[in-house]
Design goal:
Rossmann fold, 836 residues, 33 helices, 8% strand, 4 domains, alpha/beta, seven-stranded mixed sheet, single chain, two-stranded antiparallel sheet
Length: 836
């Protein structure tokens, strides 16, 4: 182990002690208490996975978070600035970056930690309740919801910041100035009367913003405006690639880091910031508040859990417990931007709003609409100065830099002639990031002929994004350009939800594929079950030929019906121009006390499945179709409702907590078991009916419980997590539906024809029941068929999710929650012509 590795390991050991002491201080515990990682995460308000990465690598907490830890423990860790300098040194060492001379110091530039702190406790010990393996504060349901949301967001954006290169090397510090463009009203209106409280009070431990403080600055000053502006409205503008989204992410993480050191009362007064994109907002149907609540409910589904109280998503919006960073406002159509501005002006806003938009587009929209955003301050990101650009590029050079380093030429160009088109093109963080990822483009710039405009430099940088990510194999580059070009055309500036890709291709092809698959699988199963081995009988018929024909017929029917259920879960939007994300065909209901509608997810797959099962079972046994339809309808409604109740889980609760039944589960089970039990009890014996009712009710009730959406409060939403959750849910529901029925029929067949016949019937019938159920309820299966359709057209690879995951790792794509975007809209635009 080298000297750098020794210092990094030593720092992590001290950091672990610091974080544990901070958790003890905030929880009001003594030095003898040894908290587990998940308990530390809960107390500090971060994600458990984040704590693990801090303790064991590979990442370190950001400077703001370390400062919060030091503030909590007081003077026990000596000089705070000295510790923060050590943090900066170690942060560079672990990435192999050069350490400036000012950071050089002794091998251990910080004294060993002392005993656990004894500062005044911000979170009183008597208000902490320890339950089993977890910890829970004696707070209200909404406070718990906000705390869970903050932890989830911390994990989401802490990870995403690393993907976007906002951790190491340090990103270019954003600089802004108050714009003179006519896009907002007077600053005095936004600031408010200093003698009267504004619409939004300043956040705890901050000062009220004034006209004098809203002039220019960096991230620190931007946070001060966000925290202290009376109107709570900020417009952050910038040109293409100026770093608007990156600035918003840094501001969001700064606020989440700051929340670590807040007491319970002060954190209650501090809203949790969320970054969302504006493409899905239809201002004509929803106010911004209603849309905000909808996005919360559909993206962070654990907010629908009963433990957080009814309708937690809209209550945190209504009570100002969250703040909205609204990105990509400029990607709305010009007419929609005008109407959206008018909608914002008309709304009685209950939450802080930071609007991110391109300068030219927003200026044009305000001019065309003849109205600025009322009560807002408009800030504009400044171009990157040559000195900052040089410093940033030097962080990507080896130390010391060799004479043949490609970046040396660019640095010399910036030092000698910053007004050259190359220098002017490198005045945005986006272009600098492209250059740092592809230093060899310097040679192409030197051989591309005269460089007369910055646009030519930008075109060269954008034109090499795919070749850098997928090179040097030209075949891979060509394939990637074709696949990404198809994505660019289909997305058309909107976010990609992988579970909605089925709207891109004709659905009749999936009907054919599912029908053929059902026919093939059930034909083979029919040969096995009805043949000499299984000897299964239906209405007195059996045998190999009967099994083949019967299996083929039933397979085609069930394959077709499974497709009907699958497509019904998320039908194509009526207006193709408005592809709003109504996950799983979400239906809406009016919420009391809220002016607009917030989606409440419905599980039509479970409802249709229960309708078919109960109707056929009661009809076949009783002989009365009307009785069967009535019983099926009641059971369908109850089960469909029960399968929509979100149940949240976390590392603070036992894994089996999600399986606990509630009153809704028992009601759904009874609506299934009672009519089936009556049908068998009236036609056979009461005892047989009781057994049949209990068996079917408990089986399908358990299946309904397994189909219920389960949301982990500590797993950040991303496409891969969404994929894994759908896979787990599908497997559980399919097994729950298939195994009990297959087992019952297998036992019946085994009693008639022997053990081998019983096992054969059990395996065969369970297989077709499980696969049929999975085909109807699985987003993965439907999307896999889409990948087959697209592969046959040559538009996308067969392993589509693997390609999307790889494109994200190569920084061609990025994610916002569970949705996928191109790294920058200019990358999408550059790729789009390849498909037109």
């Amino acid at each position: 182990m080298g000297q750098a590795d020794d210092e990094i390991a030593k720092f992590r050991s001290v950091l672990k002690t610091l974080i544990r002491d901070a958790a003890r201080t905030k929880a009001g515990k003594g030095p003898d208490w040894e908290p587990r990682n998940n308990e530390i995460a809960w107390i500090l308000g971060v994600n458990p996975a984040t704590i693990t990465r801090w303790f064991n690598g590979p990442s370190l907490p950001r400077r703001t978070a370390v400062a919060s830890f030091l503030e909590m423990v007081g003077s026990e860790f000596g000089d705070h600035e000295e510790f923060l300098r050590w943090w900066g040194r170690v942060d560079r060492l672990r990435k192999g970056r050069p350490v400036p001379a000012v950071m050089d110091g002794p091998e251990q530039p910080h004294p060993a930690p002392q005993e656990a702190p004894s500062r005044p406790v911000p979170l009183p010990a008597e208000e902490i309740r320890w339950e089993g393996t977890g910890v829970g504060a004696s707070v209200g349901p909404l406070d718990k919801a906000v705390a869970a949301l903050a932890r989830n967001l911390y994990g989401q954006w802490d990870s995403e910041a690393s993907y976007r290169g906002l951790v190491m090397p340090p990103p270019i510090p954003p600089r802004w100035t108050r714009t003179e463009r006519p896009v907002a009203g007077r600053v005095s209106v936004a600031v408010g009367d200093p003698d009267k409280p504004g619409r939004f009070r300043e956040l705890p431990e901050t000062q009220r913003a004034t006209a004098d403080t809203i002039q220019e600055g960096g991230l620190k000053e931007l946070f001060e405006i966000y925290a202290g502006l009376g109107s709570g409205r900020i417009i952050l503008m910038g040109h293409y690639g100026s770093g608007k989204t990156s600035t918003a992410i840094l501001l969001l993480l700064h606020e989440l880091d700051r929340r670590i050191g807040l007491t319970r009362d002060t954190s209650r007064k501090t809203p949790v910031p969320l970054l969302l994109t504006a493409q899905d907002w239809n201002y004509s149907e929803q106010s911004l508040s209603a849309w905000f609540a909808q996005q919360l409910a559909t993206t962070y589904t654990f907010l629908g859990s009963a433990e957080y109280g009814p309708d937690a998503a809209w209550r945190v919006v209504r009570e100002g417990r969250v703040a909205l960073f609204l990105d990509a406002f400029d990607e709305l159509d010009p007419e929609r931007q005008i109407e959206a501005i008018h909608s914002i002006n008309r709304e009685s806003q209950t939450f802080r709003l930071v609007l991110l938009t391109r300068t030219q587009d927003f200026t044009a929209a305000v001019k065309a609409g003849h109205r600025p955003v009322h009560g807002a301050v408009a800030l504009e990101l400044r171009p990157v100065t040559p000195d900052l650009a040089i410093s940033y590029l030097k962080d990507y050079q080896p130390f010391p830099a060799p004479d043949d380093d490609p970046l040396r030429k660019v640095i010399e160009q910036l030092e000698t002639d910053p007004e050259h088109p190359i220098g002017r093109a490198l005045d945005t963080p986006f272009n600098l990031a492209l250059l740092s990822a592809d230093p060899q483009v310097v040679d192409e710039l030197s051989t591309a002929g005269p460089i007369e405009t910055r646009e030519k430099v930008e075109d060269l940088l954008l034109g090499r994004v795919v070749s850098v990510a997928y090179g040097p194999d030209q075949r891979r580059i060509t394939e990637a350009e074709r696949y990404l070009g198809y994505l660019a055309v289909q997305m058309d500036g909107e976010d990609l939800s992988w579970w909605r890709m089925h709207h891109w291709v004709p659905r009749w092809e999936r009907y054919v594929l599912n029908t053929l698959a059902g026919t093939l699988i059930m034909s083979v199963t029919g040969l096995m079950v009805f043949g000499p081995v299984g000897q299964y009988t239906v209405t007195g018929h059996t045998g190999t030929l009967f099994g083949l024909s019967y299996g083929a017929a039933m397979g085609s029917v069930f394959g077709f019906l499974a497709t009907v259920v699958s497509e019904a879960r998320d039908p194509r939007p009526k207006d193709p121009e408005r592809r709003s994300d109504r996950r799983s065909g979400a239906r809406r209901r009016v919420l009391p006390g809220f002016p607009d509608r917030v989606p409440r997810a419905v599980n039509p797959a479970v409802a249709l499945f229960i309708l078919a099962v109960v109707t056929m079972a009661v009809r076949n046994q009783s002989g009365h179709l009307l009785f069967g339809l009535l019983a099926g309808a009641v059971a369908s409604c109850a089960s469909g409702h029960a399968a929509t109740r979100v149940r949240s889980i976390s590392s603070m609760r036992r894994r089996w907590a999600r399986l606990g039944p509630n009153l809704t589960d028992l009601l759904a089970s009874s609506t299934i078991g009672v009519p089936i039990g009556l049908a068998y009890g009236l036609t056979k014996t009461p005892e047989f009916g009781a057994v049949a009712g209990l068996l079917t009710g408990s089986t399908f009730g358990f299946m309904t419980s397994m189909a219920r959406p389960t949301s982990d409060t500590e797993t950040p939403p991303d496409p891969e997590t969404h994929w894994k959750q759908d896979r787990s849910r599908t497997l559980l529901v399919a097994l729950t539906a298939a195994v009990p029925i297959g087992l019952a029929l297998g036992i019946q067949n085994g009693r008639a024809h022997g053990l081998v016949a019983g096992i054969t019937a059990f395996v065969g019938l369970s297989t077709i029941l499980g696969l049929g159920t999975a085909a109807g309820i699985s987003d993965i299966w439907r999307t896999a068929l889409v990948f087959v359709q697209l592969r046959l057209r040559g538009d996308f690879p067969l392993r589509g999710m693997r390609f999307l995951r790889g494109a994200r790792k190569k920084q061609v794509l990025r994610t916002v929650g569970a949705k996928i975007q191109f790294r920058h809209d200019r990358v999408r635009i550059a790729l789009t012509p390849t498909r037109r």
